[in-house]
Design goal:
Number of domains: 1
CATH topology: 60s Ribosomal Protein L30, Chain: A
Number of strands: 6
Strand order of the largest sheet: 1-2-3-6-4-5
CATH superfamily: RutC-like
Shape: globular
Helix content: 10-25%
Length: 124
């Protein structure tokens, strides 16, 4: 098991790893819209979604994977009415690649965050 803590991703505040590589896959923990200095992006749901995906991209690269190798993603959103906006950012970021995905409407996230994303990707 290999723990991943890439440069450019702030260290977790809780007891977890940003990602773990095991058995040909990388399991990326839920990413909040946090910049490399650990500051939350407080903009629109689109801006927050984009930051989450950028963080995932950095983690995947450090893990020997990439966005095009994501097999499953889970998106947690605080308002289901934001689904079309979140879907638009997701589609724009992933392009022709269409991983399996779940969108889960949730209650309040920390610090007024609107979205969180995790994923599983193939390595190699």
């Amino acid at each position: 098991m290999k723990y991943i803590q890439p440069e450019g991703i702030s260290k977790p505040r809780g007891h977890y790893s940003p990602a773990i590589v095991e058995n040909g896959f990388v399991f990326v923990s839920g990413q909040l819209p946090m910049d490399s200095a650990g500051n939350m992006v407080k903009g629109t749901v689109e801006e927050q979604m984009l930051q989450c995906l950028k963080n995932i991209d950095v983690i995947l690269q450090a893990s020997g994977s990439s966005i095009s190798r994501v097999v499953k993603a889970t998106v947690f959103i605080t308002d289901i009415a934001d689904w079309p906006k979140v879907n638009g950012v997701f589609a724009g970021y992933f392009g022709d690649h269409r991983p399996a995905r779940v969108v889960v409407p949730v209650g309040k996230l920390i610090e007024g965050i609107l979205v969180e994303v995790d994923c599983i990707a193939a390595v190699g």
